[in-house]
Amino acid sequence: MQEKLQKILQYLTNKGARYADARYEEHLQQEIFVENGTLKTLTNNFSAGTGVKALLKNGWGFAATDERGDSALERIADEALKIAEASNKRANKEVKLAEEPVHKDKFISPYEKDPFEISEKEKIELLRHATLKAKEIEGVIRTTGSMFFKKIRKLFVSSEGSVIEQEIVISGAGISAQAIGEGGFQARSYPTSFGGDHSTKGWEFIQKMNLIEHAPKIAREAVELVSAPEIEPGEYDVVISGNQLALQVHESCGHPVELDRVMGSELSFAGGSFLSLEKLNKLRYGSDYVTITADATIPGGLGSFGYDDEGVEAQKSYIVKNGLFVGYLMDRQTAAEIGLRSNGAARADSWSHLPIIRMTNINLMPGKYTLEELISGIDYGFLLDTNKSWSIDDLRLNFQFATEIAYEIKSGKLTGRIFKNPVYYDITPQFWNKCDGVANEDFWHVWGVPNCGKGQPMQVMHVGHGTSPARFRKIKVGVRK
């Protein structure tokens, strides 16, 4: 296939393209869903195809096909050139690409047990037992469990000479228990909500979750939440769990630093960003405790890889350093526009889509505290755990998050009392400036988010967020009736 792709690139450059690349990809995917111990869905999908990108003068063109023949590849090369020619007529500035060394390399995400070599029966039985274990708790009306596996193989070649092969394996799982009563409907999830946790690891990642052992706890909490009180609205000191902070980082730190969003490319669909260019290296994004990185090199991170889909090597860069806003997520074109090198954030969710700027692993770096020490510093407040819902404006400033549960903190200790329907809200920089402590690396975990949507047509990307619990002062919690 490499020879075919290089032949097409030569064809494109002979036709006047000043840059071109091609990606051949294979995607193998499996999804399993179990409800109350019964298998509801089991799907296996495979897709393969080639996408070709060309820069003609100052216009980009892209086309793709699931055919492998020479005539099909030549056809999409011609389509990409026609689109590039049309785009060039509307171009209003010169397109430059940040320099990147030529890479000839192979990358395989490390894993111990290939999930596609584990029998479907073993996977289903694990979910069956976990959901049935949760269903044993009186008051639980429904339990669910899911698993997700994906294997991606890529071959990337560019007119600059790069030839890169990659294989990335993804595994994920989660369970949920739901209860209902006079106090309404409540749910608890493990290890986190919306399908659980995901990683670029193998079956061993699922085994270490211990889904069956954790099922009774979330089931009991779901039942207890039905009759639990709601928090009286006010300002409270809070500790926010790592799995909730993962989504907080995603929405209020990851999306606003996408440079295409800053430059207006996403305005018509997903919105823009408050992090305009003049704020770089000037804005106080958070307190001194807040350091945020973009790091595609973390083993097991769902946003980890060897190279992005422009052939840029995976790397670690800073987004916020000790509270100061210092960096964006970039592709080669936007990086060149601000005089920097790309930090490898151009990715497509399949061979049929054009790469756009996406998060890698966006991480709140660990601090020096234990969870107990964070809690001990609160006279009265709450530990907020596991996302339930979220809302944020199109500039990523004003947000509201709800969690599944709040644990009461009094005189520096958890009281054992729980509250339902906790909601907190704030403005992004104000919120992060209220952070006065982050738990240490013993509590730090890279959570996987497999369903980040962006672009037109929509692309669904897998990203990661390393977080540990953190403490925030005077946060508005609760909903006024």
How would you briefly describe this protein structure?
The protein has about 475 residues and is α+β, with helices and mostly antiparallel strands. The protein has helices at about 1-15, 70-90, 120-135, 205, 210-225, 240-255, 260, 330-335, 370-375, 430-435, and strands at about 20-35, 40-55, 60-65, 105-110, 140-160, 165-180, 185-190, 195-200, 235-240, 290-295, 315-320, 325, 345, 355, 360-365, 380-390, 400-410, 415-420, 425, 435-440, 445-455, 460-465, 470-475.
**pLDDT below 50 for ≥5 consecutive residues: which ranges?**
none
Radius of gyration: 24 Å
Helix content: 10-25%
Structural class by helix and strand composition: alpha+beta
Broad shape: globular
Question: Could you describe the largest sheet, including whether it forms a barrel?
Answer: 8 strands, mixed
Distance between the termini: 62 Å
Oligomer: single chain
For the secondary structure, the number of strands is: 23
Describe the structure.
With 481 residues, the protein is an alpha+beta fold. 22% of the residues lie in helices and 40% in strands. The chain contains ten helices and 23 strands. The strands form five sheets. Strands 1, 2, 3, 4, 5, 6, 7 and 8 form an eight-stranded mixed β-sheet that branches. Strands 9-16-17-19-23 form a five-stranded mixed barrel. It has a four-stranded antiparallel β-sheet with strand order 12-11-10-15. α1 packs parallel to α2. The model has no long low-confidence stretch (mean pLDDT 97).
Structural descriptors:
eight-stranded mixed beta sheet; 481 residues; alpha+beta; 10 helices; globular; 22% helix; 23 strands; five-stranded mixed β-barrel
